[in-house]
Amino acid sequence: MALQKNRVVNSNRAWDAGRVYKVNEVVQIAGVVYQNLTGGNSDPLLLVDWVVVYQDVGLVYSQSEVDAFLVDKINVLDTGWEEMEDTVHLVGSPQLLTAGNTANLSNNKGVLRNNILPFGVTTFFDSATSKLTPALENDFYQVDLMFKVKNSVLSGHFDVWVDITGIGERFRQSRICPKTANTETNINISFSHFTSDLFALNGGVIKIEAITGNLEIYDKQFRIVRVIKGR
Length: 231
Description:
Blueprint: E1 26-29, E2 32-36, E3 50-55, H1 63-75, E4 80-85, E5 95-97, E6 102-104, E7 111-116, E8 125-126, E9 131-132, E10 140-151, E11 157-164, E12 168-176, E13 185-194, H2 197-202, E14 204-210, E15 215-228
Antiparallel strand pairs: 1-2, 2-3, 4-7, 4-15, 5-15, 6-14, 8-9, 9-14, 10-13, 10-15, 11-12, 11-14
């Protein structure tokens, strides 16, 4: 449920465990502004029925300040991006994949740029499982997978795709290394997608398969952008 700008009679009102709150009502606790998402009345500190829209511990805000905080959150609520660089597989220590085999296309997020993620989203990619983790059903994303490869044969080729539990293979693309054997080639795999219910539930593992020739894979950089928030 999207946050909305909400005016309350007294924005300094503390949370009351005995009170019934409406969706989008706002309370303050120790300088933290919470907004209700569900109409439930659990303790705001548990972040079950509430989300934090602003905090500066120890201060008390005026109504106009609370309104400004909510407007700021609304403006960044729906869209955003995350970009990550792998620091494990570099040119001197690449990910190795022999012909005929498949592996996860990993990225440890050693360098991470995610200060413009959508509000309420912590990541779009699980580095432990090489899995895309879209936030909501019916989200729409643009995904860019950039990396370098060396192939042991001239014009050797490989495939990249996403494996979604309950659905299977999606977004498969084939790439050829057109240079001489063991020569660096820059690769950019791009695709856009909407998020089905199973994709939102299970995520999708990024896979790479060496079709002909052995691969050295390194300098991996992923960029994931939520273009439209599902509803």
